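Reminder to self: tokens first, then the designed residues, so the page reads top to bottom the way the pipeline ran.
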């Protein structure tokens, strides 16, 4: 099993956004670390992650430490311009979603975890798309309030 995390999942976790699913993401991150399940993000996610954290007040040494902390939990997908060209030529409405999808697909990830399932699902034939909660409950068969 290889997981690809959309940028919003990282941000929901790092910023503990209640609009996301931070508890499920925390469980998922802990499980993948303990069971050595590879988790991937695109290089673009890292740029956006750093930018949004900085815009939310994290600066200097604290920002660098937070980025290092997340880099210890995830792998970066390899990248080249073909991934971007595929995204441009796809029928995704949101081009950034297309870039994310093709990075995960080319890295041979099985599951794409996003807080934005609706925009990905119609386009993702090569990976199963889940929200963090859906993945934890449907794929891992865990129960909220019991397992996490």
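Designed residues (148 positions):
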């Amino acid at each position: 099993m290889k997981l690809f995390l959309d940028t919003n999942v990282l941000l929901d976790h790092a910023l503990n956004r209640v609009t996301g699913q931070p508890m499920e993401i925390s469980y998922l991150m802990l499980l993948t670390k303990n069971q050595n399940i590879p988790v991937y993000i695109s290089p673009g996610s890292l740029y956006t992650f750093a930018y949004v954290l900085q815009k939310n007040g994290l600066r200097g040494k604290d920002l660098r430490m937070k980025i290092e902390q997340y880099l210890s939990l995830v792998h970066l997908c390899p990248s080249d311009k073909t991934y971007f060209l595929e995204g441009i030529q796809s029928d995704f409405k949101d081009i950034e979603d297309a870039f994310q999808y093709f990075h995960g697909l080319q890295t041979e990830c099985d599951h794409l975890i996003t807080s934005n399932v609706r925009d990905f699902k119609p386009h993702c034939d090569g990976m199963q798309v889940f929200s963090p909660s859906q993945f934890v409950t449907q794929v891992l068969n865990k129960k909220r309030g019991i397992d996490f």
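The two ends are 21 Å apart (CA to CA).
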